[in-house]
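Example for tutorial group B:
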């Protein structure tokens, strides 16, 4: 979007959250600040949804404060989130099943003949979100990942309209990959199940209407849900998604590949170190997110040592002990 569109979207969001429009000087300052930020967002190749994401990551609800540095950091984070399928370290057979399902859907002439989505299940931090983002990027699909707050209405009866609006946007920008994370909280079991209330009942019912409506429409919208609690999802929703695909914890070689992918930017490779096998064995219960958190803790530990940076670690006993100590300190070391 052009910078002006981003700027006025930000202005609307700021003014909507303010008890009053503030003083004239405040308005001028806000306008100037947002003009600079909006130009940076627009020239950086962000979509309008990216711009909204940056705002939500940076500005607390109801806040009147604006910090350019925070916007810049949030924008950089979004750039890093644009990953490719090659960046996703996943069991090859699992990745093939996922990619083939999306390719088949996109290539079908009639959307009524193909399935409308699938459910990814498995422990937290195993790459479910990454694979969906990568699919949207490489398949040139419009990507939507509405949160629970974006789907849930403020009052009973409003939720169905919000869900309908999400699907209208998806159809208008097809082909679209619609991603529902933590689907167990969005589509809980009805009939008095845990987490079930009037809001969730509206949400589930409207979702079923929308996804069933895809069989007669021509717009290509593929829905992917993710959860680590599949038993908590309403049965009718699971039946529409047609298949549950397990995304488990990475095996030994995959963990080392994840370590290398995260450590590459620091000029360090674990795969060519003599203690590689030991770290592989002792990180058996770690997910990709656990490894990412481990690296953050490793950076913190090294900042207080002579090494200073990860790239200064060596293939020696001292470096091995540092790895093991960080695992131990953060209760990640298997005993």
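The residue assignment follows.
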């Amino acid at each position: 979007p052009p910078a002006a569109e981003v700027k006025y979207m930000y202005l609307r969001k700021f003014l909507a959250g303010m008890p009053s429009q503030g003083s004239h000087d405040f308005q001028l300052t806000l306008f100037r600040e947002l003009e600079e930020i909006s130009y940076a967002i627009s020239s950086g190749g962000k979509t309008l949804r990216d711009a909204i994401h940056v705002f939500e990551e940076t500005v607390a609800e109801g806040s009147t404060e604006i910090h350019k540095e925070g916007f810049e950091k949030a924008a950089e984070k979004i750039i890093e989130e644009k990953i490719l399928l090659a960046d996703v370290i996943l069991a090859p057979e699992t990745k093939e099943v996922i990619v083939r399902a999306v390719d088949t859907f996109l290539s079908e002439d009639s959307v009524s003949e193909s399935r409308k989505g699938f459910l990814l299940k498995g422990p937290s931090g195993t790459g479910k979100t990454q694979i969906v983002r990568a699919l949207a990027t490489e398949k040139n699909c419009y990507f939507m990942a509405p949160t629970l707050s974006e789907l849930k209405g403020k009052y009973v009866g409003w939720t169905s309209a919000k869900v309908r609006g999400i699907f209208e946007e998806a159809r208008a920008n097809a082909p679209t990959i619609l991603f529902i994370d933590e689907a167990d909280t969005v589509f809980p079991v009805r009939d008095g199940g845990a987490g079930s209330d009037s809001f969730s009942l509206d949400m589930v019912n409207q979702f079923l209407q929308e996804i069933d409506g895809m069989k007669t429409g021509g717009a290509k919208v593929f829905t992917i849900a993710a959860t680590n609690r599949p038993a908590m999802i309403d049965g009718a929703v699971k039946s529409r998604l047609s298949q549950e695909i397990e995304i488990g914890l990475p095996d030994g070689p995959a963990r080392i590949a994840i370590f290398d992918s995260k450590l590459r930017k620091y000029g360090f490779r674990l795969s060519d170190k003599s203690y590689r096998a030991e770290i592989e064995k002792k990180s058996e219960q770690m997910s990709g997110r656990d490894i990412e958190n481990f690296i953050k803790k490793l950076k913190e530990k090294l900042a207080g040592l002579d090494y200073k940076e990860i790239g200064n670690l060596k293939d020696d006993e001292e470096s091995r002990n540092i790895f093991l100590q960080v695992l131990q300190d953060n209760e990640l070391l298997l005993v």
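Residues 208 and 237 are 7 Å apart (CA to CA). Compare this with the pattern of hydrophobic and polar residues in the output above.
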